Amino acid sequence: MLELRPNCEICDRDLPPASGEAHICTYECTYCSDCARELMNVCPNCGGNLQPRPIRPATAHRPNVSLSHHPASDKRRHSKWSAEERRAFSVGLKDVPPAER
């Protein structure tokens, strides 16, 4: 089950569970849509692609399956990458064909 991390790891923007602005990789690194776009939808940590994070329903449509039964994480995470390192990463991606990102 996804943690539904509460913030963008780069800019610290709040990303509540119902936010359509959250993007994640397969390791659940979490970024807002602006930072994901800056990273060309590639996670700087694992190199995997970033996709919109699914939204867990607030109301149970099946027994015990909802945000109230499985709440989002409240542990905030922050990137270890400096702004300069992220810029260099993004610049390097510009020469990589989209199919290979």
Short description:
The chain has helices spanning 33-38, 83-93, and strands at residues 22-24, 30-32, 51-52. With 101 residues, the protein is an alpha+beta fold.
Write the topology of this structure.
Elements lengths: L21 E3 L5 E3 H6 L12 E2 L30 H11 L8
Antiparallel strand pairs: 1-2, 1-3
InterPro entries: DUF1272
Protein name: Urease
Pfam families: DUF1272 (PF06906)
Can you describe what's shown?
It is a single chain. The chain is α+β, with helices and mostly antiparallel strands and 101 residues long. The protein is 17% helix and 8% strand. It contains two helices and three strands; from the N terminus they run ββαβα. It has helices spanning 33-38, 83-93; strands at 22-24, 30-32, 51-52. The protein has a three-stranded antiparallel beta sheet. β1 and β2 form a beta hairpin. It starts with 21 loop residues before the first strand and ends in an 8-residue tail after the last helix. It comes from Seohaeicola zhoushanensis. It holds the Pfam family DUF1272. InterPro entries: DUF1272. Residues 57-101 are annotated as: Disordered.
Features:
alpha+beta; 101 residues; 3-stranded antiparallel beta sheet; elongated
Q: Fraction of residues in helices?
A: 10-25%
Shape: elongated
Radius of gyration: 15 Å
- Give a count of the beta strands, DSSP E runs of length 2 or more: 3
Helices and strands, in N-to-C order? EEHEH
**Poorly predicted parts:** none
* Order of neighbouring strands in the sheet with most strands: 2-1-3
Mean model confidence by pLDDT:
89
Instruction: State the helix count.
Output: 2
Please report which band the strand proportion falls in: under 5%, 5-15%, 15-25%, 25-35%, 35-45% or over 45%: 5-15%
